[in-house]
Amino acid sequence: MSQVLAKESVDARRKRLTQVMREQLQSYWHEAEGYQKLLYCTGVLLLSSAVFHAIVLMVTRGTLAGDVSFRKAISFGEAFGLTVISLAWFLTFLPKKRLLWWILSSLYSVATFIEVFLVTMQVWRGVPSHFNFSTPFDAAVFGMMGVSISLHIPLIVGIYVSSLFYLNVAGSFKWAISSSLLLLIASQIFGIVMIVNNSNTVGLAGQMKIPHALSLHAAQLMPLLAWLLSFTDFSENKRTRIVMAGIASYTILVVITASQTLIGLAIVDLNLPTLFIFLTSAAILGITFLWALNGLRHS
């Protein structure tokens, strides 16, 4: 009998926790300012494009390799969609400077939509979207993509600078948001390196796409870790320590992949000491999320 009651108690706690998490997610939308909803809707549109092209890829039995694969439409829709949603969420915790955020959010939404649209258009045309100068039109498309990417910077930098002074959240969230924005800025720099280099490849085998993608997705993973921890019974000091461990390990992964790329080597060519640090950092990052999930189980 006691085991049955205990099971019911666990199920009840899980149900309550799930409900609380769902209500908080809903509140982010209901309490969002207009400029945030613009960003949220843009993100959903881009993610919908990624899902649509994933279906197209499966139906057409397409390949994941190559510059004209539907994979590019999928990856760009997913990456930009998640990033714009993350930025909209971060604005929840900053002062409501409506004119400033409306201008920067509108600029970002339009630039993001144009970027993904141009990449997707080139995929459907069956030509490479990046570093394609084979015709005046293709060169113009790539030039427009470069302009649209540059228009992403004002909102990202604006939120980052504001986060340093005005972020109205607990310490663990502050660390997660500010550090992930800094890594997001790093991802833009890696993108610039690819454009200047006129290729994704550095040297013989360095792939700048790896640190670029890794730093880009910090804007989802680090805040997600802090958000999950916020529902645990851990003290704020403990949550902050876990988040900082996650940030440190994630940053090391970015640094190693970027360093390896800049010297022109593939990620599989890591020397043994660096490989050990890389695997250890990846393990620590995984442990932080397992710690958070375990905390949720016992909340």
Query: CA-to-CA gap between the ends?
Result: 23 Å
- What coarse outline follows from CA principal-axis ratios? globular
Q: How many strands in all?
A: 2
Strand content: under 5%
**Poorly predicted residue ranges:** 1-6
Helicity, as a percent range: over 70%
CATH architecture of the largest domain: Up-down Bundle
How would you sum up the major sheet?
2 strands, antiparallel
Radius of gyration: 21 Å
The third-level CATH topology of the largest domain is Butyryl-CoA Dehydrogenase, subunit A, domain 3
Number of domains: 2
CATH class identity of the largest domain: Mainly Alpha
User: Regarding quaternary structure, how should these chains be classified?
Assistant: single chain
Report on this structure.
The chain is mostly helical and 299 residues long. The protein has 2 domains: 32-168, Butyryl-CoA Dehydrogenase, subunit A, domain 3, CATH 1.20.140; 171-299, Up-down Bundle (Four Helix Bundle (Hemerythrin (Met), subunit A)). The protein has 11 helices and 2 strands. It has helices at 2-30, 34-59, 70-90, 98-125, 136-150, 153-166, 171-197, 209-216, 218-229, 236-262, 272-297; strands at residues 201-202, 206-207. It has a two-stranded antiparallel ribbon with strand order 1-2. The longest helix has 29 residues, at 2-30. Residues 1-6 have low confidence and may be disordered.
